[in-house]
Write a structure and sequence with these properties.
mainly alpha, rod-shaped
Length: 676
């Protein structure tokens, strides 16, 4: 429009009717400039195009108004230069230049995808906080890093960023959590809180979306807290209470039995003996149950050992897999950071080179424009002769202006693209650096988990559950040995006493049988009493035989139960008193006492027998003496008769009296001296 007023002979043909002046277009404060950048760029293009075409329109009526048009041409050239300069200064990309992180990943050849980073950041508040901290740190150090990059050391940018990353404290934070999880004093609710916190650390440092390493660590802690003998101890404690009650009953019954024996209450003592025997059998049965429980616990200990070995293998394989995957992923992240920094440095260098080339082209273009203006000035002087040549020059100017506009627009687009790339670079590299910093804590986490697992399983090995279980079995076997020893001693004493009682009753039975046989000879009126005693003694022997059979059957049954216990004690090199030897010693002592008592009784009986034998001998001697005296008296009487018959005084009474007195003296002498 302003060229129209300058030409005064009618404006040239315009590409489009525009309603904005060039002064308005190049004014950034004008309201049209704030409406739409693409529309303003189109108007700028139209203004430049109109300015260029306006110069060509000056060729119309050039011959008639050459001088005026020359001045107008100069003014138009000057205004055209101002317009182009304003366009170059104020031009903006016609569309929004977007260079997202996907394009950045493809351009830089990165392995870690943006969606993986976004998912890792969005799923973890700690990582988001770390990213925000890294962003703040980045903003504070951005200017210094840009200056360092501009100073010719672009390769150090990645190193500087890594050095500025937050220091990982995972190892320091996780180790106390694992130690508290392994503790037996930790409550269940606290364990759940510790497990959740440990999984939070796993999410921060292990962006692999797997809790296997945490599960393995928790399993190791559970195995360390586990007690495979807990049920055994509970059962032994429960049985120990009832066992103590039986022990007390046995002790009380034995005391009552000894008291009954001291007070000669034999029937009560026999009843208490049977009760004590039943209690001893019950005691052995209960101790056998304890031994069986302790022996059966070996399966639980073995199963616990197998589970612990499997958990240890799972922990080792999981830690190795996580460490390998983490190291591989960390290597990818480190490679991405290196490649991204190299790509950024290369991009910045290319942008600087392109900017330098653009500035060189702009200088060349300006030189060409200056030449055109100088040449145009010369041509205006010779315009009449070189109108045709001037048209070519004007076309050349038009091409140069068009090229300049295109170069300016391309430079603007290139600068916006570089800014978008730099923004995408800053965002992505900060996320990678935050991830890189936290990944260094993954090794600390896995090392802490591995160390904790090793401590747990080493603690399990140090506790030696199989040895403890075997010690429990040996302890119960020793307890069983003590109970069995008391049982066999008690039962052996009962058997010994029953056998001697049977012998005593049998001896009494023989005496009663003798009395029954001799009652008729001695005219003993107590024969029915003797027969009743014979029947009672026979029944007593049968009862004693029944008790002996029951005692011996109980001993045989308990001996079969004792053999495995004895083998267990022998296998474990436990010194113990053999029950057989104890029974033999008891029988020896009791038999010795009985023999002493029987020996005393036998000595008394022997004395009586010897006295009776002497009486028998004395009676026999008396009988012989009496018989001899009678014979002598008979012979004396016969001799006296013969002498009386032969002598005249033989029949006198005095001689007969003397003979009788002599016989009496002879008989009394024979009675006084039985040996004679």
């Amino acid at each position: 429009q302003f060229l129209y007023f300058i030409g005064r002979s009618g404006p040239p043909a315009m590409a489009t009717d525009t309603t904005v002046a060039c002064s308005d277009v190049v004014n950034p404060g004008h309201e049209y400039y704030r409406v739409d950048q693409a529309q303003l760029n189109a108007q700028l293009h139209e203004a430049v195009s109109d300015a260029v075409k306006a110069i060509a329109g000056l060729r119309v009526n050039l011959s008639d108004e050459l001088r005026s048009l020359q001045e107008a041409s100069k003014a138009a050239v000057a205004r055209s230069g101002e317009t182009v300069a304003a366009f170059q200064k104020e031009v903006r990309p016609p569309r929004q230049i977007v260079f997202d992180r996907d394009a950045l990943t493809a351009a830089a050849g990165l392995h870690v995808r943006p969606e993986s980073l976004d998912r890792y950041v969005n799923a973890n508040s700690r990582v988001a906080a770390a990213v925000e901290s890294a962003v703040s740190e980045r903003r504070r150090t951005e200017s210094s890093m840009e200056q360092s990059a501009a100073g010719g050391a672009p390769s150090s940018m990645g190193v500087s960023r890594r050095e500025l990353s937050p220091t990982s404290v995972v190892g320091v934070a996780v180790a106390p959590l694992l130690a508290e999880l392994r503790s037996d004093r930790t409550r269940v609710s606290r364990r759940e809180e510790l497990s959740a916190e440990l999984r939070g650390w796993r999410q921060q440092v292990l962006p692999l979306e797997s809790d296997d390493v945490v599960d393995a660590a928790l399993s190791a802690c559970e195995h360390e807290r586990a007690d495979p003998l807990r049920l055994l101890r509970a059962e032994l404690t429960k049985l120990g209470q009832s066992l103590a009650g039986v022990e007390a009953q046995v002790a009380q019954t034995c005391d009552e039995r000894r008291a009954a024996l001291r007070s000669e209450e034999i029937a009560t003592a026999e009843t208490l003996s049977s009760t004590a025997l039943e209690l001893y059998e019950d005691l052995l049965h209960r101790v056998r149950d304890r031994v069986k429980l302790a022996t059966d616990a070996a399966a639980d200990v073995e199963e616990f050992g197998v589970d612990s070995s499997e958990a240890r293998a799972r922990l080792q394989s999981t830690v190795e897999a996580v460490v390998s995957a983490t190291k591989e992923f960390a290597g990818q992240v480190d490679g991405d950071v290196t490649r991204l920094c190299e790509w950024h440095n290369t991009t910045c260098e290319d942008a600087r080179k392109e900017q330098a080339a653009f500035e060189a082209r702009m200088d060349t273009n300006m030189q060409e424009l200056d030449k055109c203006n100088a040449e145009e000035s010369e041509l205006w002087a010779q315009l009449q002769a070189i109108v045709t040549r001037m048209e070519g020059v004007q076309n050349r100017r038009e091409d140069l202006v068009t090229k300049r506009v295109e170069e300016a627009e391309a430079a603007c687009i290139r600068a916006a693209t570089a800014d978008a790339k730099a923004a995408a670079f800053r965002e992505h590299v900060m996320l990678l650096e935050a991830l890189q910093a936290n990944l260094r804590g993954a090794v600390e986490l896995t090392d802490a988990v591995k160390e904790s697992g090793e401590k747990s399983f080493n603690a399990i090995d140090r506790r030696q559950w199989p040895k403890k279980q075997n010690d429990a079995v040996v302890k119960e076997c020793v307890r069983y040995h003590d109970a069995y020893l008391r049982y066999v001693l008690f039962t052996g004493e009962l058997v010994h006493r029953a056998e001697h009682r049977r012998a005593n009753v049998n001896r009494l039975l023989r005496g009663v049988e003798f009395q029954v046989k001799s009652a008729a000879e001695v005219l003993d009126a107590d024969l029915p009493l003797y027969r009743e005693q014979q029947r009672k003694f026979t029944q007593a022997i049968e009862q004693v035989d029944q008790r002996l059979g029951r005692f011996r059957a109980s001993l045989q049954k308990e001996e079969l139960q004792w053999r495995p216990i004895e083998a267990c004690l022998d296998d474990n090199d436990v010194e113990f008193q053999p029950p057989e030897l104890a029974v033999q010693e008891l029988q020896r002592d009791l038999t010795k006492e009985h023999c002493a008592a029987v020996d005393d009784l036998a000595n008394e009986e022997q004395k009586l027998v010897d006295h009776e034998k002497r009486q028998v001998r004395n009676m026999a001697n008396l009988c012989d003496a009496t018989r001899a005296s009678i014979e002598e008296k008979r012979m004396t009487k016969s001799s006296a008769k013969k002498a009386a018959a032969a002598s005249p005084s033989a029949g006198s009474p005095a001689s007969a009296a003397k003979a009788i007195k002599a016989e009496q003296q002879s008989a009394s002498t024979a009675t006084a001296d039985p040996a004679r």
